[in-house]
Design brief:
42% of the residues are buried. The chain has helices spanning 10-16, 20-31, 46-55, 128-131, 140-153, 176-187, 207-216, 231-237, 246-255, 278-287, 313-324, 346-352, and strands at residues 3-4, 56-57, 62-68, 74-79, 85-98, 104-113, 117-119, 134-137, 162-166, 199-203, 221-225, 264-270, 293-299, 329-332. It has twelve helices and 14 strands. α1 crosses α2 (20-31), α5 packs across α6 and α7 packs parallel to α9 (246-255). The chain is α/β, with parallel strands linked by helices. It is globular, with a radius of gyration of 21 Å. It has a ten-stranded mixed beta sheet, covered by helices on one side. The structure holds S-adenosyl-L-homocysteine and iron/sulfur cluster (SF4).
Length: 356
């Protein structure tokens, strides 16, 4: 089987491909022009193109379906070389900025939500990805390629700013080496140049891996999927809490290097009559005391066969205002792409069930 070219960092390619300026040209074709064949690189000598084509593939992922949501989000389903499938979502947000003369301009802000594994071992009770079990880790190149295809498919210029969130399928810290390698490939300033402070890793709270990631000091943002404020409930929702309880996560977060202008995000999936009461908000406030934190409340996104329900708007707002009125940053995540079932694992599930 051919190697995946996107599995390699620029430094690795520089040692593999000589002379090194050729490796740099290749890197530009791949990450600035989104080339999908070596044929498309006319300034590389034919012999080099042929030898590259015999050793490497540039297309480890096949785009199977794209679904567009009313709000413009686009959800992609990709097939890997072994037939497994993963999802990624392009989220569009309108951002206000200012012209030099002070007038307001509106610009789309792109965020790509990417997968790190096929399935997930963590087995959270509310998560559709977990239902299908765990298949395998993605390689760095398979992670990188999700973004490259989405940028190409939407004609997003190489210079346009893009944010990345590792919030698709899988637990990124359970595939730490490949994820960290992808972070570095994304950040390479001769490539996609997505600075690490524009990348966010979301984790169910593998405390020991948070510590390892923290020691690498990549400048990446951290998001913690907390979802419950006491261990008894959290174990029921997220069995991983038996191995890494809430206090261990809080301790790991306190030791994590956070950019001075940033905060650690705590995601709190709100489920009707499970964790949506003001008592929970109260405990959350005291739990986060002393941490530079922000809270993101997420509506539970229901799917067929789940026992859980979406919370009411009233309880969401009450939860939020309890926290904000006490000085904690707290936002409610818009249900981006809800009509295309953009929550974790939902598109893939439909495809497996033959609905697409
Ligand atoms: N494994 C990582 C990253 C992927 S999940 C993690 O758990 O953080 C990304 C986010 O989607 C998590 O916060 C997860 O709790 C949330 N999620 C899972 N199922 C959901 C659902 N049905 N509705 C809304 N959010 C969901
Ligand atoms: Fe895995 Fe995250 Fe889903 Fe939990 S919520 S099963 S950690 S993908």
């Amino acid at each position: 089987m051919k190697k995946i070219l996107q599995d390699y960092t620029k430094e690795e390619l520089l040692t593999r491909i000589k002379p090194s300026f050729r490796a740099k040209q290749l890197w530009g074709w791949v990450y600035h022009k989104y080339a999908d064949s070596f044929e498309m690189m006319p300034n590389l000598p034919k012999a080099l193109r042929e030898s590259l084509a015999s050793e490497y593939t540039l297309n480890p992922l096949k785009m199977l379906t794209v679904q567009e949501s009313q709000d413009g989000s686009r959800k992609y389903l990709f097939e890997l070389h072994d037939g497994h499938t993963v999802e990624a979502v392009l989220l569009l947000m309108r951002e206000k900025s200012y012209h030099e003369d002070g007038s307001i301009k509106h610009q789309e802000r792109y965020t790509v939500c990417i997968s790190s594994q096929v399935g997930c071992k963590v087995g959270c009770a509310f998560c559709l990805t977990a239902k299908g079990g765990f298949m395998r880790d993605l390689s760095a190149g398979e992670i990188v390629e999700q973004v490259r295809i989405i940028k190409r498919d939407n004609a997003i210029d190489a210079n346009r700013r893009v944010n990345l969130v590792y919030m698709g399928m899988g637990e990124p810290l359970d595939n730490l080496d490949a994820v960290v390698k992808s972070v570095k490939i994304f950040a390479d300033c001769d490539g996609m140049a997505i600075a690490t402070h524009r990348q966010t890793i979301s984790t169910s709270g593998l405390s020991s891996k948070i510590a390892r990631l923290g020691k690498m000091d990549l400048g990446i943002n951290l998001a913690i999927s907390l979802h419950a404020v006491d261990d008894e409930l959290r174990v029921k929702l997220m069995p991983i809490n038996k191995a890494y309880n809430i206090q261990s996560i809080i301790d790991a977060v306190k030791a994590f290097p956070v950019n001075s202008r940033k905060r650690v995000m705590f995601e709190y999936l709100v489920i009707k009559e499970v964790n949506d009461d003001i008592d929970a908000a109260k405990k959350l406030l005291s739990l986060l005391d002393g941490i530079k934190a922000k809270v993101n409340l997420i509506y539970f996104n229901p799917y067929g066969g789940t026992e859980f329900q979406r919370p009411s708007d009233t309880s969401m707002r009450a939860f939020q205002s309890y926290l904000t009125s006490r000085g904690l940053h707290c936002t409610i995540r818009e249900s981006k792409g809800l009509d295309i079932s953009a929550a974790c694992g939902q598109l893939r599930e439909q495809a497996l069930e033959g609905e697409l």
